[in-house]
Amino acid sequence: MARAVLKTHFGYDTFKKGQETLISGILEGRDALGVMPTGAGKSVCYQVPAAVMDGVTLVVSPLISLMKDQVDTLNQSGIPTTFINSTLTVQELNARFRDIAGGRYKLVYVAPERLESDRFVRLLAELNIPFVAVDEAHCVSQWGHDFRPSYMAISRLLDVIKPRPIIAAFTATATDKVKADIVRHLRLNDPLRVTTGYARDNLSFFVMKGIDKKAYLADYVRGRSGDCGIIYASTRREVEECCNYLVKLGIRAGRYHAGLPDEERVRNQELFLYDELKVMVATNAFGMGIDKSNVRYVIHYNIPKNVESYYQEAGRAGRDGEPGECILLYAPQDVMTQKFLIEQGESDEDRKAIEYGNLHGMVEYCHTTECLQRYIVRYFGDSDGQSCGRCGSCTDDREVEDVTLEAQKIFSCVARMKQRFGITLTAKVLRGANDAKVRQFGFERLPTYGALSARKEKEIVNLINVLVADGYMRLTDSQYPVLTLTNEARGVLEGKEQVFQRVTPVARSASRSADTGDEALFEKLRQLRKTFADRERVPPFTIFHDATLRELCIVMPATEEEMLTVKGIGKVKYDKYGHAFLSCISEHSAAGNG
């Protein structure tokens, strides 16, 4: 039954990794915890069981944008779905309640805050709800990067809905501590656990350091004028500056941050979803639930606050399985901005210590010389990560430099400073700076004072950061982190180990898969899709993903049977759009292009 739903409504013959295991477990009555990277198909793991089960499935989801995209997509696929959130008027809300009670829908999406409404909870008690799915489940954990107190209300559903529904929780990123919190706070009963791994095989990661950010941005975005992309910045001011800069260059860019009126945010998001805007410049307020499949690149103009946030935001690229690029533009002052934001936050001191530690993990990512994808995978506890062969580190073919002597001098200096000071002061001592703080502690009398005087202070700071990222030193989790040596440094100091370093990697364009079909036909199919999307007032990707259009260009179907073999085209969508797309392909071939 599940496979029939997958084919008819979603247009796929086979499940992706982990999907069938989770769906089978849920349909057998088991609670579940699914940890799957963005683009791995988490939503299918609860949408297919919902379509199969009697009654209505409740989906708890944190962002209105996510609800709208998924509701649009499911209704396009022939599965009646709706949402309840703050955008509805009282009249609309009453009508939705009546329709839900009348059994009109198979899925209902709700924000977690809605579960604090007594009226809504009373409605749930009267319904047949066999299944509750919790999306972005990491929000329930204080160890998670996006903790939301409202998620704590979810477990009360188990006391209201009778008989007890199956509970399944899903997230793209979760460390072991976060997973334990999810199971405990959602009261999952001996859950089936599926973690499909964190690697995204179609994404290429790059870190750019020491560059003119605006010049890089202009060059990159103009070079990808046909592609959709997202640019994340840390502050509203930088969002405004970047957006204005791109618009002046003639680029169709929009902005999104919490300081804008609701109407403008909604309008810009819609324009981006409908491909009217090619680039969205945004703070992290944008994108957590954006289901847009054809984002080809994500650029972080500033360093994010932690690896979890970065991987989720970068993961907006390439959701359709096509190649995507994820580029982080690093500057040391951005770290100070994030520290300021932590200090200005309302978290208690324990939570701030966690946030500082998470930020250090992000700084290490920016300086590591190992495979960037592997660093991320290892961060989440997967020790089996292989080098991706695509990222800035893996594709950097320049010669490595032996920096063992410099490393020994740095480690010796840190030890002589009693492992009580941070990177900046250590670099000043090694540089031999005539600095008041250096003299205050008498560090000008150390044997390591001026040991790296031939190097600029900025170069010394960079080298120290690389040595931290590669595990030779650690930084304490505090606002003013202190350098400490690890066991790995001891082998270097004793002359038993060597240390090598590369210069900053250069981003290269990700190449598409070898056979992408006819580009002229692809553009015609995109225009046809846009015509349908405009007519039905839905985002183009809810009709067919770019990957589906690409496969149409390769397969060149001439009949219904041939078209139904293409991934992403099921019977429901063929009946709606199939004839028009077959005609477009046929006309293109007849014109001598096939």
TrEMBL record:
SUPFAM superfamilies: HRDC-like, P-loop containing nucleoside triphosphate hydrolases, Winged helix' DNA-binding domain. Its cofactor is Zn(2+); Mg(2+). Residues 23-192 form the Helicase ATP-binding domain. Residues 515-594 form the HRDC domain. Transmembrane segments: none annotated. Residues 216-360 form the Helicase C-terminal domain. It is an enzyme of class 5 (isomerase). GO terms for cellular component: bacterial nucleoid; cytoplasm; replisome. The keyword Metal-binding applies. The keyword Acetylation does not apply. GO terms for biological process: DNA recombination; DNA repair; DNA replication; SOS response. InterPro entries: DEAD/DEAH_box_helicase_dom (IPR011545), DNA_helicase_ATP-dep_RecQ (IPR004589), DNA_helicase_ATP-dep_RecQ_bac (IPR006293), Helicase_ATP-bd (IPR014001), Helicase_C-like (IPR001650), HRDC-like_sf (IPR010997), HRDC_dom (IPR002121), HRDC_dom_sf (IPR044876). Keywords: ATP-binding, DNA damage, DNA recombination, DNA repair, DNA-binding, Helicase, Hydrolase, Isomerase, Metal-binding, Nucleotide-binding, Zinc. It catalyses: Couples ATP hydrolysis with the unwinding of duplex DNA by translocating in the 3'-5' direction. One of its GO terms (molecular function) is metal ion binding. It comes from the Bacteria. Pfam families: DEAD (PF00270), Helicase_C (PF00271), HRDC (PF00570), RecQ_Zn_bind (PF16124), RQC (PF09382). Belongs to the helicase family. RecQ subfamily. This is DNA helicase RecQ. It comes from Paenibacillus oceani. The lineage of its organism: Bacteria, Bacillati, Bacillota, Bacilli, Bacillales.
